[in-house]
């Protein structure tokens, strides 16, 4: 037996017979195959027209995490602190206390109130009935609405409003510290009350844009909007920008593909087949009842990239076969026979990379995994079946044949020198160098964080409108937009007991010491003020009483967002400096530490709600699932590779460069200040899938030459002349294509573009250089000879 057979799978009778049967069925019935593809394509293209953007708050959160389970249990009480939009109405001409501005604020409030999806009962602003004030006088406690019933816009009424705002302690929360703007807090319902369907954030933000922002901007009032729904709305609005860069990338790749093969037929058929794959994917999504989520909106390009990667192999081998004198039909059949197994295996490996994302229990990531897997499923049919049949008709143009002849007679000096990497002296150096890189990557990736690392919305650039609005709010208001809510739960009607109040007070004081917590709001702070107010405002009485009658009176009139009707849940709201991963981790650990150190008895301290609390849960799920996802990706793809090559040595040689590439990618993310989150996870999974494509194709070609009795270096050189050129071209072309994304207005698209550039190039270099070096060392001296 030839020594290099350790690295070479033996032909499997069943598999070879299956390939032969498929080849005959495909090429003997070409008209029927094309007709079938035409009918299915038209149907899916028609369904693709029905595809709509789709976003849901519930799909953005890990619904099975204990934090989220606690939130959902008390959702009615916690909604005003979780899925909230803050509409800031600014008076550019001065303070808000003018007849004209107050009337405009009322009009804005009324317009927002009637937008579908708004939780109207919990909406709050200066003009809503739930904005009340109270004060201690010699006659007792007085209270009333911030804007009184007798308000008429006069100077006296405006002065009264100013005083009421101070009495209600709304300065810094609902009114800016400089008194030049006011906030309308807009909690949202998960489902549209008119349709019963999940709230359409795109439609909601468009309505808000036209009826509020644009309408009142024309009246000289500045409107700013901050919140989860606005982030999603802005991402959906940026779909045109994403589509533009997608089109630029397609055109650029098409031009480079033509320059590579100099055959307009092959270029046109390849690009159209890849675009058909994307359209068919979108049609299947619509057919299955899915929409296109903002975080999945880049997946169609990834499927296009995968399609190009495989199609280039087909073109390259087709031209090579035509150069040997075969007709277009014969060359297509030989190409199909040579690429069917490695191509299908590579596509299955791509699918595995995406399916592994299903282990992350976040709806939007799971939908992304399904979306991408459907795309790969479609690609198997379009690349493995449709493209070879189309190529059997269009063939290769004379200019393309001339290009192939020039390559065939080229001495390939670059590849001849590159083939030396399989020599032991060079291979050992390359492996040692890769180990050094691996060590450097491990060191650099220690700084990799989970979650957001910047203030505002990291999906957008700092100068984006949303981040500017968020920066304005943080600058002019005391209370932060990053709210972390701890649920203090008691038996019914016991939230105002002294023991409960005392424990909650200790918790609040403890959390105020945590770095990043700026202020606290809760029922118990309101109760302390009530006790103080009912005792002539004497500071000595600003403590909880063991007299239950006093405690019950203090709870009377507390706002609905501070306690539920049964007096069994009292949310403790923490306003944070930011929502960075470190801040959220410190807060969550502080709450857990307090719970461990104190005997809570019948009382429970539950985490977490608010936008920051939900993000903390999301970060925890990603942190625990990301490693599992990567392990599954590498294990399952390794099994796929092992199934094809029947060799542990080959499997290791193919997977080692991919692991190095993944570590280096994470190192770059850490140095760029990018956290592992919903937007970046798919890149890591994709990197492994695309990388293994290169390796499978290259080694499959190389093993054919090994079977012919060539030496290891000669076999590698011959593989480089055919498949190696395709791998190099694909890596460079895709890298150049996505490099244009760095100019996108969306920061997360620009970041993904940069990461994909690095992955495409690293995987290409790994397949062309490191893979053969490792494989040659594992093959042993006899096999190399």
TrEMBL record:
Q: Does the keyword Cell membrane apply?
A: yes
Q: Where is the SSD domain?
A: 271-393
Originating organism:
Pseudomonas fontis
The molecule here is called MMPL family transporter
Domain of life according to the entry: Bacteria
Compartments, record wording = Cell membrane
Q: Which residues cross the membrane?
A: 32-49, 242-261, 268-291, 297-317, 338-360, 372-396, 426-444, 628-645, 652-672, 678-699, 720-743, 755-779
- Keywords, comma-separated and alphabetical: Cell membrane, Membrane, Transmembrane, Transmembrane helix
Topology class, membrane: Multi-pass membrane protein
Q: Which Pfam families match?
A: MMPL
């Amino acid at each position: 037996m030839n020594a290099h057979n350790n690295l070479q799978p033996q032909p499997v009778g069943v598999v070879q017979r299956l390939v032969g049967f498929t080849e005959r069925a495909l090429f003997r019935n070409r008209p029927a195959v094309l007709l079938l593809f035409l009918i299915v394509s038209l149907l899916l293209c028609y369904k693709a027209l029905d595809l709509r953007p789709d976003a849901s708050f519930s799909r953005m959160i890990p619904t099975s995490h204990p934090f989220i389970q606690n939130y959902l249990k008390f959702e009615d009480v916690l909604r005003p602190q979780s899925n909230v939009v803050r509409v800031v109405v600014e008076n550019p001409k001065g303070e808000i206390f003018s007849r004209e501005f107050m009337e405009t604020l009322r009009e804005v409030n009324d317009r927002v109130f009637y937008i579908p999806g708004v939780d109207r009962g919990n909406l709050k602003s200066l003009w809503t009935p739930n904005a009340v004030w109270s004060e201690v006088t010699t006659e007792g406690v007085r209270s009333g609405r911030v804007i009184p019933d007798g308000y008429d816009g006069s100077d006296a009424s405006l002065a009264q409003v100013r005083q009421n705002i101070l009495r209600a302690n709304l300065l810094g929360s609902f009114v800016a510290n400089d008194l030049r703007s006011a906030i309308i807090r807009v909690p949202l319902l998960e489902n549209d009350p008119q349709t019963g369907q999940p709230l359409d954030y795109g439609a909601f933000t468009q309505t808000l844009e036209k009826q509020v922002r644009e309408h009142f901007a024309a009246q000289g009032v500045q409107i700013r909007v901050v919140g989860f729904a606005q982030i999603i709305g802005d991402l959906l609005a940026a779909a045109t920008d994403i589509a533009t860069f997608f089109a630029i990338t397609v055109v650029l790749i098409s031009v480079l593909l033509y320059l590579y093969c100099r055959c307009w037929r092959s270029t046109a058929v390849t690009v159209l087949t890849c675009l058909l794959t994307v359209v068919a994917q979108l049609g299947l999504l619509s057919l299955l009842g899915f929409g296109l989520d903002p975080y999945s909106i880049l997946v169609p390009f990834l499927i296009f990239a995968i399609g190009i990667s495989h199609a280039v192999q087909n073109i390259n081998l087709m031209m090579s076969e035509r150069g040997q004198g075969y007709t277009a039909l014969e060359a297509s059949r030989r190409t199909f026979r040579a690429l069917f197994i490695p191509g299908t295996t590579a596509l299955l490996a791509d699918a595995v990379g995406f399916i592994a994302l299903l282990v992350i229990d976040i709806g939007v990531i799971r939908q992304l995994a399904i979306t991408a897997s459907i795309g790969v499923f479609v690609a198997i049919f379009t690349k493995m079946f449709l493209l070879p049949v189309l190529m059997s008709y269009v063939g290769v143009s004379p200019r393309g044949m001339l290009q192939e002849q020039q390559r065939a007679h080229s001495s390939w000096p670059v590849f001849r020198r590159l083939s030396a990497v399989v020599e032991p002296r060079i291979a050992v150096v390359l492996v040692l160098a890769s180990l050094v890189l691996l060590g450097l990557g491990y060191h650099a990736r220690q700084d990799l964080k989970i979650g957001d690392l910047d203030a505002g919305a990291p999906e957008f650039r700092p100068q984006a409108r949303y981040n500017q609005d968020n920066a304005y709010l943080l600058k002019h208001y005391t209370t932060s937009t990053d709210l972390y809510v701890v649920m203090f739960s008691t038996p019914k009607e016991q939230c105002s007991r002294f023991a409960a109040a005392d424990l909650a007070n200790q918790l609040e004081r403890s959390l105020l010491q945590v770095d990043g917590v700026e202020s606290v709001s809760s029922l118990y702070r309101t109760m302390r003020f009530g006790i103080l107010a009912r005792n002539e405002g004497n500071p000595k009485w600003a403590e909880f009483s063991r007299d239950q009658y006093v405690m019950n009176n203090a709870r009377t009139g507390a706002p609905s967002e501070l306690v539920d009707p049964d007096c069994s849940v009292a949310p403790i709201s923490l306003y944070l400096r930011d929502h960075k991963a470190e801040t959220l981790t410190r807060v969550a650990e502080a709450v857990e530490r307090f719970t461990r150190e104190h005997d809570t008895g019948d009382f429970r301290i539950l985490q977490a709600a608010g936008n920051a609390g939900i993000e903390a849960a999301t970060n925890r799920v990603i942190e625990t699932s990301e490693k599992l996802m990567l392990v599954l990706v590498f294990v399952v793809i390794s099994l796929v590779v092992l199934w094809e090559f029947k060799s542990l040595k080959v499997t290791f040689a193919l997977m080692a460069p991919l692991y190095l590439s993944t570590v280096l990618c994470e190192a770059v993310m850490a140095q760029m200040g990018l956290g592992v989150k919903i937007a970046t996870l798919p890149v890591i999974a994709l990197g492994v899938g695309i990388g293994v494509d290169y390796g499978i194709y290259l080694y499959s070609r190389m093993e054919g030459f090994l079977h012919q009795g060539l030496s290891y270096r000669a076999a590698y050189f011959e593989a480089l002349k055919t498949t190696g050129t395709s791998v190099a071209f694909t890596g460079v072309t895709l890298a150049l294509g996505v490099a244009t994304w760095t100019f996108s207005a969306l920061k997360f698209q620009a970041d993904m573009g940069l990461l994909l550039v690095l992955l495409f190039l690293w995987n290409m270099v790994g397949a062309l250089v490191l893979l053969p070096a490792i494989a040659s060392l594992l093959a042993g001296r006899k096999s190399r000879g």
